């Protein structure tokens, strides 16, 4: 571990997965340690999807979350919190206009720039913390982006200049910590307006996949708990999990 100013950072040259590293070592890791690797050989996204390693010029990061008060803790909303934090960094520091795709993807111009995955770490049947992982395309070139099976982009592809990984990491860390206490205290409601403001799906006719079952309707918004409100015909249904197609 090294300290970059106030930051607690672990830098790895190559690892199968930063999330796996954090889950395995969470007892020895400090709360809000940022673990990142230049290369990730077995990265994954939600629902065991493979995260494409598009090069060591990008960010593969897991944040160690170890709550003091485990009974009142917004476990389920940390991916959404990180969506908002990343969006703020992209807007304020890189002059981009991010969009959030429920529940936890960040897009630029309809193309994915980051994916987020939170996984619990259990010891003796008790949840001791979260491995909050994120992959961000910082400097992926246009040629490499074309090899990804879904529309994707990078900061470099959008603004044409190289992003310094350590500078980006520090900006993300500072913003994450700045709003952290308020988020932990108030939960999703503290970021609801920020989330909905950037939600590209609200007011649109969408289809969602919920455990293999397809539902269609108009996305009305999200609840105070971060769940999707979908108007299907005359009914409004709430979905806690799923993916927008």
Task: Note down, in words, how this protein is organized.
With 245 residues, the protein is α+β, with helices and mostly antiparallel strands. The protein folds into two domains: 197 residues, 2-Layer Sandwich (BirA Bifunctional Protein, domain 2); 40 residues, SH3 type barrels, CATH 2.30.30. 25% of the residues lie in helices and 35% in strands. The protein is built from seven helices and 13 strands. The chain has an eight-stranded mixed sheet with strand order 1-2-3-4-8-7-6-5, with helices on both faces. Helix 2 crosses helix 5. The longest helix has 17 residues. The radius of gyration is 18 Å and the shape is globular. The termini are far apart.
Short note summarizing the structure:
It contains seven helices and 13 strands.
Question: Which key terms come to mind for this protein?
Answer:
2 domains, 7 helices, 245 residues, BirA Bifunctional Protein, domain 2, five-stranded antiparallel β-sheet, single chain, alpha+beta, eight-stranded mixed β-sheet, 35% strand, SH3 type barrels
Q: Could you estimate the helical fraction of the residues in percent?
A: 25-40%
Rg calc: 18 Å
Catalogue the unreliable spans. 44-51
CATH fold descriptor of the largest domain: BirA Bifunctional Protein, domain 2
Taken as a percent bin, the fraction of beta residues is: 35-45%
Tally of domains: 2
| H/I helix tally | 7
Give the class from helix and strand content and strand pairing: alpha+beta
Beta strands, count = 13
Main sheet overview: 8 strands, mixed
CATH architecture of the largest domain: 2-Layer Sandwich
The top-level CATH class of the largest domain is Alpha Beta
Based on Cα principal axes, name the global outline. Answer: globular
Spell out the CATH superfamily of the largest domain. Answer: Bira Bifunctional Protein, Domain 2
* Termini Cα gap: 40 Å
SSE arrangement, N to C: EEHEEHEEEEHHHHHEEEEE
Q: Roughly what is the average pLDDT, rounded to an integer?
A: 89
Question: Which sequence of strands runs across the widest sheet?
Answer: 1-2-3-4-8-7-6-5
């Amino acid at each position: 571990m090294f300290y970059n100013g106030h930051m607690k950072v672990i830098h790895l040259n190559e690892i199968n997965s930063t999330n796996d590293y954090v889950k395995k070592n969470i007892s020895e890791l400090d709360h809000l340690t940022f673990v990142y690797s230049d290369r990730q050989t077995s990265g994954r996204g939600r629902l065991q999807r493979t995260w494409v390693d598009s090069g060591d010029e990008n960010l593969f990061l897991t944040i160690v979350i170890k709550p003091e008060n485990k009974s009142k803790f917004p476990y389920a909303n940390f991916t959404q919190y990180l969506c908002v934090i990343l969006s703020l960094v992209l807007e304020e520091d890189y002059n981009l206009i991010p969009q959030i795709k429920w529940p936890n993807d960040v897009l630029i111009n309809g193309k994915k720039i980051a994916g987020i995955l939170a996984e619990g770490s259990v010891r003796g049947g008790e949840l001791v913390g979260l491995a909050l992982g994120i992959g961000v395309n910082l400097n992926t070139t246009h040629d490499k982006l074309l090899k990804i099976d879904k529309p994707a982009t990078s900061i470099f592809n959008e603004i044409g200049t190289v992003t310094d990984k350590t500078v980006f990491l520090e900006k993300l860390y500072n913003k994450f910590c700045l709003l952290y206490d308020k988020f932990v205290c108030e939960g999703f409601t503290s970021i609801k307006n920020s989330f909905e403001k950037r939600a590209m799906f609200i007011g649109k006719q969408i289809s969602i996949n919920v455990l293999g079952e397809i539902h269609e309707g108009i996305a009305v918004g999200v609840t105070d708990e971060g769940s999707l409100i979908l108007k299907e015909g005359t009914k409004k249904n709430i979905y806690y999990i799923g993916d927008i197609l």
